[in-house]
Amino acid sequence: MTRYLLIFLATLLTGCSIGLPENNAVQMEALPPAQTGVLAEGAHRQTQQHPGLSGVTPLSRGADAFAARMLLADLATTSIDAQYYIWRSDLTGNLLLERLQAAANRGVRVRLLLDDHGTGGLDKQLVELQRHPNVSIRLWNPFVLRKFKPLSFTYDFFRLNRRMHNKSFTVDGVVSVLGGRNIGDEYFDTGPTALFVDLDMFVAGAIVPHISSDFDLYWNSPSAFSAEQIINMEQNASGVIRNAVDHYAHEDTEQLEEYRQLIADSGFIQRFSEGNLNLEWTQVTLVSDTPAKGQGRVPEKDLLAGHLVESVGTIESQFDGVSAYFVPGKDGVEAFSTLEQRGVQVRLLTNSLEATDVIPVHAGYAKRRKDLLENGAELYELRRQSEPDSVSSKLGPFGSSGASLHAKAFAVDGQKIFVGSFNFDPRSARLNTEMGLLIESESLAQSMHTAFDTGLHGTAWKVEMRDGKLVWLQPENASAEPITEEPGRTFWRSISLTFIGWLPVEWLL
């Protein structure tokens, strides 16, 4: 304890002199789309049949989502551009790093842009990759302190509080995976931690050049620093990635073998390798924050939330939203209430207290819950799943094995669906950079509407107001007695929720 106190005091005293170096990252643009190779030839063949359109298919299962990234890395011939908020140093994180390394060995140019808040324990792997002549790594709003990184907030809070929450994986300039998943075991249905219900989209066609151009804006932003400027490149990092994978082969054989089997059984791999991947060809719009948001230099009218409202247009009758971290705030309550007053049915799904992995966020949601219900919105809260597979295939397009919700999506009027990184919370709206795809698809939108119509198939509580008090219902069991005590509430959680609700921190959530 004394050691940490001394480090903290030293950081406070010297923080003013621990600044970022001058950013010397060289401008770099996306390579032209590949013309040869399995990906390019398949994409070009289908694009010619659907000129001006984009091909999309959801990746609901975590194993499929991971298999897609692994397979795409293996098939890359010219370039891989990957952008993520979190990249774990765990089984899936190291397996995918190994595939990026293998692609670079084949001559593929790899660009990896990571938010530095989510790179804990990964420095040596990044050093090993950065040393490869075909790999470039940049860190977004980096921490100068590589150990005890959170201490940096004591002297550089307002910069470090702005994070890059975007997620995309683009290969050969012709296909991409974009959505809500970070890189880590909990996002891909494996490992000892709680698994996440999440959603990615595999895309090809007209939208991919827009994703590549957006990546370039972030890559060349003043907030993106070369890893060589931030991480000690002199440390011994030879063979670190291979050793990390070998660790699972030797000490965690069960997890590795189980996951290899999951990938081998993935329907995505079979459909893709046989050329039978069923893509829906339609109009797709990329909605993304400008990277200047990472420096707090964007007028509120130019933020993603405003562009998204403009792109969606007038909502006529139905809005179903899924947000893992739902903190509507006063403005959100007013916006949803306005929709209800216009006759739009608003239904929202977020994590219950028993399922959430971020208690402060639930506190921000809970303080607005009654207002939302009193103004006509329907609220659903994902239950904590005793069996992760019990969620599988039950939540429409975002049906994935999981115990906690992480997806961010909404459907409008049975016509459009949005999938991306954007939560309905102040952090996504005003602090973090975000991105997503607005897809014109009756099938995907209706699938989400149908999931809500059926009460989410017993995976969620429905929250209502009765006699001025909140109750939790089981939509699949109309005869069950309402629950009057919030599921997952304990004495200490109650105190935490009440205390956090009093604090003026909603803008941070």
From TrEMBL:
Keywords for this protein: Signal
Keyword Signal tagged: yes
Stretch forming the signal peptide: 1-19
Superkingdom of origin organism: Bacteria
An annotated GO BP: cardiolipin biosynthetic process
Domain PLD phosphodiesterase: 160-187, 401-428
InterPro entries reported for this sequence: PLD-like_dom, PLipase_D/transphosphatidylase
Entry's transmembrane regions: none
Keyword Signal attributed: yes
Gene Ontology molecular function terms on file: phosphatidyltransferase activity
UniProt name for this protein: Phospholipase
UniProt source species: Aliidiomarina taiwanensis
